[in-house]
# Entry
Amino acid sequence: MEPNPDVLRDLHRRMVRIRLFEEAAGKLAEAAKLPGFLHLYVGEEAVAAGVCVNLTDADSITSTHRGHGHLVAKGGQFRPMMAELMAKSTGYCNGKGGSMHISSLELGMLGANGIVGAGSPIAVGAAFTHKYRDDGNVAVAFFGDGATNIGAFHEAANMACALKLPIVFACENNEYGEFTRRDHTMAITDIVDRAQGYGMPGVIVDGMDAVAVYEAAAEAIAFARAGKGPTLIEAKTYRFYNHHGVQNLGLKYRPDSEVEVWKQRDPIFTFEAQLEDMGVLTVDRREALWAELRADIADAITFAEDSPYPEQDQILEDVYTRMEVAR
Amino acid sequence: MGTVGVIANPAAGKDIRRLVAHASPTSDAAKIGVVRRAVLGAVDAGATRILLSPDRHNLSTRAVEGLDWETSAAAGVAIDILDEPAYGWSGDTVAMATRMAKEGVEVVVVLGGDGTQRDAAKGWLDLALVAISTGTNNVFPRSVDATLAGLAAGLVAAGVVALDEVSHRAKVAHVRFGDGSNDDLALVDLALMDGQFTGSRAVWDPGSLRALVACIAEPAAIGLSSIAGLLMPVDRRSPGGVHVQFGGPHRVRAPLAPGIFSDVAFSFVRALPVSSQVVLTGPGVLSFDGERDKVLVAGATATVHIRPDGPRVIDVDATIAAAARTRHFHRPDGAVR
# Structure
């Protein structure tokens, strides 16, 4: 059930990488150095890390508009990520995807997505590919509570179950769809209640607890690899910042007291305390890790700032696939 | 006189055992029906006030909205929802039970699994309790339709049947920690397992078990307590409990989770008299009534005593039978209530 110490340290590193990348991106956005909207994943790190630590590069994931955390957890490197956020040609998508459309096919990260609910059908396609090729790989669709109200999610979940595809539906229920409380847009509270309507098992885990997410994801992914079909994991979690941008308190649509309660359950700090109690992590090792990753972030920012924007004649590159037409 | 409390745990029946075992899901829609039937049962029995716990899923609100109170037998019955904040964690059930004690509730219907019943007992140790199972592998609450559970609760609350005639005092495994943290309790069993995390909380791996103290050790059960029950049965009404030490030459086969049977290695099993105690020593994680809930660091101790000072558990069958014997359900010819 429990991850071994190597996996625990891996989970921790993935979460700290996400946190530092997001905090740095937030500061750059405040300084008007990033174009476009920025949706920060801070607070939800345990979900991406707990799921992705169970995956390989050959497994596929689809993400959301809040997608940096999923790419970092899937092994994304800071330099091409930061460059992509700055729309530079050295980015993962040569600067033409940006925050909300960042992807890395080599890492099996099939894309963040600006459209709520649009990632799940893509993950179903990837899962179909894995089943058709019989390559033993799985797909994971990350999405939020709000996405389950979208028709595309329904079609994706239904088709995945009908075809018994190797896919895990990983719902990050952070209680808000953009600026609207969940209970204003749906008459149920637990997304998992929808799972049985499609004919798949669904479980709830504490999305602020990396080990809880890890345990459920390990089981769900093994279930998919074994050919048993889709599952739904609902991770109860919370974003510490606004829907977009870096404001956290004083928001009109959610009370500060609620934010403070969730922040006391910070997935990284609570995990570090546990690891230190266990002797898996020392204070020195923790401080060294944060320092090392902060240096990586600083390097990535310099790299991105020094990188050129794409040239005008590259505008259509990587946009259309050139197909040989048989004559 | 005549107040029935209803506490529903929205989190019950949705954990990882739907994936690692073969447990069925329990949706909110199902729970709303259970709450509604419990209310209707209690009202029909003659309860004059129903006090429901608020919850983050609004189970209680939805259960009672839309009921046609004017034309039903409920006319004149007060239906209230406690003005107590619900945060969406297990502490909610504890707080609701404590509050219901202060509100003068006579009988509480608690809907949930073993974990929910335990939380209710933590909030009000000797509450008069009708325990309904909506959780996963339940030992403490019995499977009974809420219509009848509510009816039994109402009959006792309204004074139709005397509590002492139809209830027994539940045993409690009281836990005291060497590090001075707050005392805790279990209603079914307490287990020490390998590990350092509470994780997804459920328990399904027999290889991680180190020791078990069961205050209910009944053979026809699912979960850790079934190990004790199959080796040395001590039912819920008999004094004392059972202590099993794991790892060792002996094997017992037991259903540890719904649909999951495992061979469990143990070194000894012994009866645990009321006066005795068991000391469990870390490192490890303690499971209370089947859920990993507290980490013990190396050398930390948890001392367990079993005492019969828990909830006064109402026997639903016995209660309705007692009321029937007094011709409570007879109506004069032609009378309409």
In short: The first helix of chain B runs from residue 17 to 20. The two ends of chain B are 21 Å apart (CA to CA). The first strand of chain B starts at residue 3 and ends at 8.
